[in-house]
Specification:
The protein is mainly β. It has an 8-stranded antiparallel sheet with strand order 5-3-2-10-9-8-7-6, with no helix packed on it. A two-stranded antiparallel sheet has the order 1-4. A hairpin with a 4-residue loop joins strand 8 and strand 9. The protein is globular, with a radius of gyration of 16 Å.
């Protein structure tokens, strides 16, 4: 866990639209992101304080839980990030949590509601929490394709201003990319 991802800006909950505005157009192979699997280890943040900015050294974590995501091949995003007010595009149902033995994100109903695959800058995912009045947020950031590493953040929220600070998990990931 290299760096604390600050409590997300207001726009994040709604900013997770599909990365291609309008209907996606077929892209040449060179314009496609490869299939990616992120093998992560996350810990639950135990002392988050929404009233202050905390550095990685100030945040304590408990546990070391396996957590893996599958990001299917997708057209490479070009242009600005999706606008939070845009209607979400259909999400590839193969975009999902594939390993979660601690049931951190067992509440997600598939397919996800929104995915912004802005690789290698970040990946933002929002999923409905099955039978609950909140949504699950998953943010992948600090992606370093050469080193094969990334950071991950996940929590649940009723809206962008009400993150559940008791269920914040953060950690590091090893990136596995499918050969093209």
């Amino acid at each position: 866990m290299r760096q604390f991802i600050p409590l997300l800006p207001i726009a994040l909950l709604g900013a997770c639209a599909n990365p291609v505005a309008g209907r996606p157009q077929p892209a040449a192979v060179a314009d496609m992101l490869p299939e990616r699997t992120l093998h992560c280890t996350v810990g639950r943040a135990t002392n988050l304080d929404a009233k202050q900015w905390q550095t990685v050294d100030q945040i304590r974590h408990e546990g070391a839980f396996a957590f893996a995501l599958r990001l299917p091949a997708a057209p490479r995003h070009v242009g600005p990030a999706p606008d939070p007010s845009d209607d979400p595009e259909p999400v590839n149902p193969e975009t999902r949590v594939i390993e979660d033995p601690a049931n951190i994100a067992a509440d997600i109903a598939y397919p996800l509601v929104r995915v912004a695959d802005l690789w290698p800058e970040r990946v933002e995912m929002v999923g409905r929490a099955d039978g609950q009045d909140y949504q699950r947020l998953i943010i992948v950031s600090e992606i370093d394709p050469k080193a094969g590493t990334a950071n991950i953040f996940t929590t649940r929220a009723k809206d962008a201003a009400s993150l559940d600070l008791q269920h914040v998990y953060q950690g590091g990931c090893r990136i596995e990319t499918a050969a093209r």
